[in-house]
Amino acid sequence: MSETTMTNADIREAEQNAAPIARPVPFRGGGFVYKPVRIAGPLVFIVLIAIWEFGSDTGWISPLVLPAPSEAWTAFMNLVHSGLLWKHLGASLQRLVIGWTAGTALGIVAGLAIGLFSVARSGLQPLVSALFPVPKIALLPLFIIWFGIDEGSKVATILFGTFFPTVISTYSGVDNVDRTLIRMGQSFGLSWTSIVRKIVIPGAMPAILSGFRISISIAIVLLVAAEMIGAEYGVGAYILMAGSLMATDQLIAGVAILSVLGLIIAWLIGLAEKYFLRWRT
Amino acid sequence: MDLKLDQVSHHYGATNVLDDISLTVKKDEIVCLIGPSGCGKSTLLRFIGGLERPSSGQILQIGEPPAASLNPLTYIFQDFALLPWRTVEGNVSLALEDHKLPKAEQRAIVEDVLRRTNLSDFAKALPRQLSGGMKQRVAIARALSVRPAVMLMDEPLSALDSQTRELLMDDLVDLWTRESFTAVYVTHNLAEAVRLGHRIVVLSRRPGRIREIVEIDMPLAERKDRVHELEVKQHHLWDLMREEARAADRELADV
């Protein structure tokens, strides 16, 4: 009865009430999250070098301004075949390793002292602030007088250059150790040395390791600078010699060696972080 | 070993925090300290554990702690205070390492406390892998490992969600029923206080004074099933605290 008396308007209304249009809620989230894209890093290098090579081949980049990557590669291979590469690299690495290791070791000791003892903090913090901004390379002439023209002055430059940033990152790491953990240690009657060894130092480790990233870069910069002022062998000396001979292909090869060195060290520090900080989320 | 608080008062600068607190904690008894926020109950606990000194008055240990006790006054913290770089068993052994125990004995203690807190399967896990409730169980295991004469519990369940809190309350009651321990238990949660406290000390707002001490006779193990009987006590506690809590709430806005 009522079914038979339905008008068109009634039907339209009934349809609208019965079946409202269903559609998915529009998605607005996502993004703003760092997802590593593994090939992007190498790809940037490859593309840049390819453009550079192409530009040189077509004459768009004059060889006087910038040598082609292939020429730099040839210069590098000459260095390998002549056996000089190992002489230069060996001398540089030796200075870098000795200077950086001594600088960071002393820096960690001084940083811990500043972090743990009020007297050391009051006494040394202003000194660190005063000496940190001094470009260590400006002191090289003094270092040459003090430590000799040979290895001593170069190692000392790197040592001083890495010491100060390590001090600062170490004591700020100590400052940021969770106080409740220290209080916990005290409440269980742990000795002072136990608290430092088992709570403070591991707690400061993230800051110390990120300090390493900075200090190693400073070390490389200072290494080259020191080698440019007075060294027979070393990557810095090689670059300086290439520069004074206007052998730009060798210069680029030398700079590339430094870049690769930096990359390898950054990778090693990444490994160290993975190992020492595996407890972190 | 009993503990006696003798006229403990404390002030930070000009603000009085605690005023003339005298209290005795008897062996095998759980004393709950409740009070509005900022009444100095956590401060009082730090005095009892010797982590801070009161301005006046003293805290006395009456009698010797049991000979086997490695750390007579042992804390359990609200935020667990686990070392994130150590595994569960490493966190427990931390408390034992300074006590020059033979290695085998140390290992036996760690295994024993992990078993008692149902953590044996998690011995090698890192804190970041554990839920809040499991973290607090690790902290309880660590506290048990040093065989405390008195456990000082600073809002141990406040950082946990309410379901986990229920579970851990049951665990604590089980632990106490199997082997009774002495505890001072600071909380602002009245339900926890009536479930776990033999005596409940109600503190007033700043400066904290003892307003009333409520005794509950019911055995801990039965309380879970007789919650409705406890409700009367809980209401009474809330009546005592409501005005204080409201005043304390307003007080913060002025500071």
Automatic annotation (TrEMBL), chain A:
Location within or outside the cell: Cell membrane
ABC transmembrane type-1 domain ranges (all copies): 89-269
Gene3D superfamilies, per database record: MetI-like (1.10.3720.10)
The keyword Amino-acid biosynthesis is annotated on this UniProt entry: no
Topology versus the membrane: Multi-pass membrane protein
Single biological process term from Gene Ontology: alkanesulfonate transmembrane transport
InterPro entries, per database record: MetI-like, MetI-like_sf
Alphabetical UniProt keywords: Cell membrane, Membrane, Transmembrane, Transmembrane helix, Transport
TM helices/strands, residue ranges: 37-55, 97-120, 127-149, 155-174, 207-231, 251-272
Pfam families in the cross-refs: BPD_transp_1
GO cellular component terms, semicolon-separated: plasma membrane
SUPFAM superfamilies according to UniProt: MetI-like
Keyword Membrane: yes
Family label: Belongs to the binding-protein-dependent transport system permease family.
Entry-linked PANTHER family: ALIPHATIC SULFONATES TRANSPORT PERMEASE PROTEIN SSUC-RELATED (PTHR30151:SF38), ALKANE SULFONATE ABC TRANSPORTER-RELATED, MEMBRANE SUBUNIT (PTHR30151)
Function text: Probably part of an ABC transporter complex. Probably responsible for the translocation of the substrate across the membrane.
Protein name in UniProt: NitT/TauT family transport system permease protein
TrEMBL record, chain B:
SMART domains named among the record's database cross-references: AAA
Protein name: NitT/TauT family transport system ATP-binding protein
GO molecular-function terms, A-Z: ATP binding; ATP hydrolysis activity
UniProt xrefs under CDD domains: ABC_NrtD_SsuB_transporters
Top-rank taxon, per record: Bacteria
Family the entry assigns: Belongs to the ABC transporter superfamily.
UniProtKB keywords: ATP-binding, Nucleotide-binding, Transport
Domain ABC transporter residues, every copy: 3-230
PROSITE patterns tied to this protein: ABC_TRANSPORTER_1, ABC_TRANSPORTER_2
